[in-house]
């Protein structure tokens, strides 16, 4: 018994990894950064480390990113939301 398995486990875990709970709390912020083309891992290295290590959280990230990127409001900036705001302004 050399304990090398434990060492491998230790080395495979990024010390910056923030864990599932913190990653989930920051996920929408992180996705927003990625979706707007900013380099998210620079700002949240702990979240980036966790997403690369944790399958379930990585899946959540992919799903949220896809939802943000395919949002009609982002694809058409002059779409329904702008019309709604205009109507609200005219109603006063
Ligand atoms: Zn996780």
Descriptive account of the structure:
With about 90 residues, this protein is mainly alpha-helical. The longest helix has 16 residues, at about 20-35. The protein has helices at about 5-10, 20-35, 40-45, 45-55, 55-70, 70-75, 80-90. α4 (about 45-55) crosses α5. The chain has 7 helices and no strands. The protein has one domain. Helices cover about 75% and strands about 0% of the residues. The chain is elongated and about 75 Å long. Zinc ion binds near residues 20 and 50.
- What is the percent of helical residues? over 70%
- Biggest pleated sheet: none
User: How many distinct helices?
Assistant: 7
Mean pLDDT: 82
End-to-end span in angstroms? Answer: 77 Å
Number of domains: 1
Total DSSP E strands: 0
Shape: elongated
Give the class from helix and strand content and strand pairing: mainly alpha
Compute the gyration radius: what is it?
20 Å
Q: What string, H for helix and E for strand, traces the elements in order?
A: HHHHHHH
Oligomer: single chain
Strand content: under 5%
Bound compounds, please?
A: zinc ion
Uncertain regions spanning at least 5 consecutive residues: none
Concise account of the structure shown:
The chain is built from 7 helices and no strands. It is mainly alpha-helical and 92 residues long. Zinc ion is lined by residues 20, 23, 50, 54, 56-57.
Structural descriptors:
elongated
Which SSEs are present, and which pair or pack?
Layout: H1 4-12, H2 20-35, H3 40-43, H4 45-53, H5 55-69, H6 72-75, H7 80-91
Helix pairs in contact: 2-4, 2-5, 4-5
Zinc ion binds near residues 20, 50 and 57.
């Amino acid at each position: 018994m050399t304990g090398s398995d434990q060492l491998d486990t230790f080395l495979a875990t990024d010390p910056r990894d923030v864990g599932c709970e913190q990653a989930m709390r920051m996920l929408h912020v992180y996705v927003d950064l990625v979706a707007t083309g900013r380099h998210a891992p620079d700002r949240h290295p702990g979240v980036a480390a966790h997403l690369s290590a944790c399958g379930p959280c990585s899946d959540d990230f992919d799903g949220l990113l896809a939802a943000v990127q395919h949002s009609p409001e982002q694809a058409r900036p002059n779409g329904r939301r702008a019309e709604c705001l205009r109507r609200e302004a005219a109603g006063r």
